[in-house]
Amino acid sequence: MLNSDEVQAFADAVIARFGAVDMLINNAGQGYVAHFADTPREAWLHEAELKLFGVINPVQAFLPQLEQSDIASITCVNSLLALQPEEHMIATSAARAALLNMTLTLSKELVEKGVRVNSILLGMVESGQWRRRFENRSDKSQGWTEWTAEIARKRGIPMARLGKPQEPAQALLFLASPLASFTTGAALDVSGGFCRHL
């Protein structure tokens, strides 16, 4: 995602195989866990580069084809950190906020070209990372369901669980599809009610 030549080659291969592009979904994951005093310059730069150019490069590569579609959409997987920063993830929170701003700005710029741009704001969702933490836990008395419910309780997630992977996927499908044909510039919260913002 960070090598623009490789991204362009991928876009060219997609066009060669399928002939057209109607939707682009961007997802540049990971997060840097550290407070301000423990966050080196390299981490700030890497988080900003990954979160922004992980979207910029694919958008630049696919935009000419998207502009030819009558149902074009770009949807970005973002994080609730964009609006609800965590002090122990300051660099990631800042980069996520920048991505949200860029996504909203793109939605204004590309609407005249017939391209909708939206994002989802993820809360805590089951993942390989959570599975690894579960396997490496010191207290083995709880099973997966109890263990994740305890995390959700401690974090204050009203739905009392972590999200299932298919739940953000369904939100992405909605925003990317013609079902959301009158929606652009939106940031859909997918956090089980964990949001603290208006």
UniProtKB/TrEMBL annotation:
Q: Which organism is it from?
A: Kluyvera cryocrescens (Kluyvera citrophila)
Gene3D superfamilies given for it?
NAD(P)-binding Rossmann-like Domain
Which GO molecular-function terms appear in the entry?
cholate 7-alpha-dehydrogenase (NAD+) activity
So what family is this one in? Belongs to the short-chain dehydrogenases/reductases (SDR) family.
State the taxonomy lineage: Bacteria, Pseudomonadati, Pseudomonadota, Gammaproteobacteria, Enterobacterales
The family database entries (SUPFAM superfamilies) matched by this protein are listed as: NAD(P)-binding Rossmann-fold domains (SSF51735)
**Superkingdom assignment:** Bacteria
What would be one Pfam family of this protein?
adh_short_C2
Under which name does UniProt file this protein? 7-alpha-hydroxysteroid dehydrogenase
Q: What keywords appear on the UniProt entry?
A: Oxidoreductase
Work out whether the entry's keyword set contains Oxidoreductase.
yes
Q: Report the EC number(s), separated by commas if there are several.
A: 1.1.1.159
Q: What class of enzyme is it?
A: oxidoreductase
